[in-house]
Amino acid sequence: MNIKFKTPFATAVAIGVGVIVLAGYFIPGLISLRFLFLRAGLVLAAVALIVGILNLFAVHFRKMAQNDDNSGYSLILVFALIATLLIGFFDMFQSYMFGQPNFQTISWLFTYIQLPIETSLMAVMAVSLTYAATRFLRRNLHTYAVIFFFIVLMVLIGTLSIFTPEVPFLSQIRQWIVQVPALGGARGLLLGIALGTIATGLRILIGTDRPYGG
Amino acid sequence: MTVTGFTGIVIIFLFLGSMFFFTLTRDQEKEKNLRQIPAFRRIKEVIGLTVEEGSQLHVSLGRGGFTSLQSASALAGLSILQEIIKASSVCDYPPVATTGNATISFLAQDIIQGTSKAISTEGHERSSVGELVGLTPFSYAVGTLTTIRENRVSANILAGWYGNEITWLTTAGERQNSPTIAGTAQLPAQAIMYASASEPLIGEEIFAAGAYLGKKPMHVSSVKTQDIFRWILVVLMILGIVLKYLGMHDIFQSILMGVS
User: Fold this and answer.
1) Cβ separation of B15 and A198 shorter than 8 Å?
2) Same domain for B236 and B122
3) Which of A118, A173, B72, B246 could form a disulfide with A197 if both were Cys (CB 3.0 to 4.6 A apart)?
4) Quick one: which of A111, A112, A90 has its CA closest to A102?
């Protein structure tokens, strides 16, 4: 006899915990239970992070052996992962055994390698966005695309400090666009997203959507 | 219980009741008249194309966590992944999923294995599923770029929580000549997607995937319920404007203070 126990059990646990956490937002007596479950969730998420990193390592280790264009990137990732881990252990050893300031080398790595790289990427993103806007107009030459492009252009020019002393109405137009139609549109979108979020949450709570157990 | 708490419970029960009501009284003929969302039509097209070409779909689930406000987008992405796996069961290569969050990568793997088992496609070759590609916004974006550039990947579906870094993913898809369908709940990222994705999912459209791709009764009912609540909000907002013009804008506050 083939008894399928796993999925109904997982569903029952998920629904039960979900209902208690949701009720905890509205019923003061359940707040402590809500925090207990949330804390347990955070611990599980931290464990998932460790397993996720092992998965990342395994995937790229496998990709490294493949003969394709991206295997070089995987090699760099695996090397950086092992190096950072070893440096982290070395730092930990230094801190606990010799009482040196905490994680100096790792801090150096983040401040002088990770941070500058991410900042450079942020700068490249500005170029990438401009490229996307021009491609958009070329790809979809319809009314909304033209409106989108000219509003982007107007807001950009209105933001530039070089123009504002000479053409003051541009900054006023920019301010109006940002505070009236853009804010109104954003609020409308947010209301829709809030309703979508409620619907998604409730579907999970009643077990219609099950992002666990398949 | 506070007034806010009571109101919250009432809204949730009304929402839930409405979803069940529409599920029980569903009319399958009328369900065909759901508003057309081009992005979902495109997803169906790319799945068909993937089957014909023997290529692979890439589903990016963003970097949203499971214990924060970003979870709704991530869950919507997982729902889309589930529908895509079902629809692409006859593909030579199963979809590859990438994420920037460890918990979501777990759930993605679980969904891929569970759904594949349910539709009996477990024997297919699967080189990589539910990959965690990076933990910070930029490392995630850079890690995902390598998947987008893989020769086997013919289309990208980005559904989850993203920041401005989404521009790299959408433009990379465009450079590879692979269609990119993208949806998120984050507003600045939505603006970028509108300009750079082949088909964007705007606003709450990302949450309607189950209704459009899977035609699930409860999903269709939740779309109808959202529409009803949207109209209620519109009426309340107009009422608020009228009351403000009449100088009675604090009437609700007075009522609530009286109740509490």
Assistant:
1) yes
2) no
3) B72
4) A90
